[in-house]
């Protein structure tokens, strides 16, 4: 008997965008941090941030893909594509070693992930953040962003402006998340919205 062809169909990014748009109000969101050595940590967030997380991670990505569909955006393999306008680069997750490692830690080892605490770990070692979006009955997808240290505010060296005066920054660390699209992992595929941050 002939061996089965193990290749899978690439993820249809346009179908993904339409489904994510349709389901956006039912999506649960979990956040994970990963270090320069690709160790993954679980995190918690205040429920008041859920709407902002969708804005910072999801909505613009959906809009970019849907606008791209209307303007003839092409999806090309990362290995064969050069940076071009209106081209979204895609590759298989297994070809991106560290991305696969991070996703596997979340998918298969989540219950064993340590919760990140600034007192136990150092934010300066954090390389990026991953948001996992999932419907209760659906397959998850992941949106990742790099976190340059210039976006991290340390409590001991930062101030905040509240009302009409400067105040001590009361948190262990603060984080500014940029709204740019970077990387989507859907199915077995990675989509590089920003080649320089891939």
Care to give the gist of this entry?
Helices cover 23% and strands 29% of the residues.
Structural class: alpha+beta
What is the overall shape?
A: globular
Strand content: 25-35%
Kindly state the mean pLDDT as a whole number? 83
N-to-C CA distance: 41 Å
Largest sheet: 8 strands, mixed
Indicate the percent of residues in helices: 10-25%
Low-confidence stretches: 1-5
Order of helices and strands: HEEHEEHEEEEEEEE
**Rg from alpha-carbon coordinates:** 18 Å
Tell me the total number of β-strands.
12
Total helical elements: 3
Strand order of the largest sheet: 2-1-5-6-11-12-4-3
Structural account:
The structure is a single chain. By secondary structure, this protein is an alpha+beta fold. It has three helices and twelve strands, in the order αββαββαββββββββ. The chain has helices at 13-23, 50-70, 97-109; strands at residues 28-35, 40-42, 74-77, 87-92, 126-134, 141-146, 152-154, 159-162, 165-168, 173-175, 183-186, 189-192. An eight-stranded mixed β-sheet has the order 2-1-5-6-11-12-4-3, sandwiched between helices. Strands 7-10 form a two-stranded antiparallel ribbon. A two-stranded antiparallel sheet has the order 8-9. A hairpin with a 6-residue loop joins strand 5 and strand 6. Helix 1 runs antiparallel to helix 2. The radius of gyration is 18 Å and the shape is globular.
């Amino acid at each position: 008997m002939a061996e089965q062809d193990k290749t899978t169909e690439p993820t249809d990014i346009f179908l993904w965008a339409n489904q994510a748009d349709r389901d956006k109000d039912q999506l649960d969101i979990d956040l994970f941090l990963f270090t320069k050595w690709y160790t993954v940590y679980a995190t918690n967030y205040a429920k008041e941030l859920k709407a902002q997380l969708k804005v910072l991670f999801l909505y613009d990505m959906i809009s970019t893909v849907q606008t791209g569909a209307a303007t003839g955006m092409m999806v090309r393999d990362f290995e064969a594509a050069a940076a071009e306008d209106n081209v979204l680069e895609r590759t298989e997750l297994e070809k991106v070693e560290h991305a696969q490692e991070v996703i596997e830690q979340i998918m298969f080892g989540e219950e064993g992930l340590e919760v990140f605490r600034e007192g136990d770990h150092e934010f300066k070692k954090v390389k990026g953040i991953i948001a996992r979006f999932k419907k209760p009955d659906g397959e998850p997808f992941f949106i990742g962003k790099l976190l340059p240290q210039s976006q991290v505010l340390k409590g001991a060296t930062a101030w905040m402006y509240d009302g009409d005066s400067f105040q001590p920054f009361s948190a262990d660390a603060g984080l500014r998340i940029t709204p740019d699209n970077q990387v989507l992992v859907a199915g077995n595929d990675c989509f590089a919205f920003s080649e320089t941050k891939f």
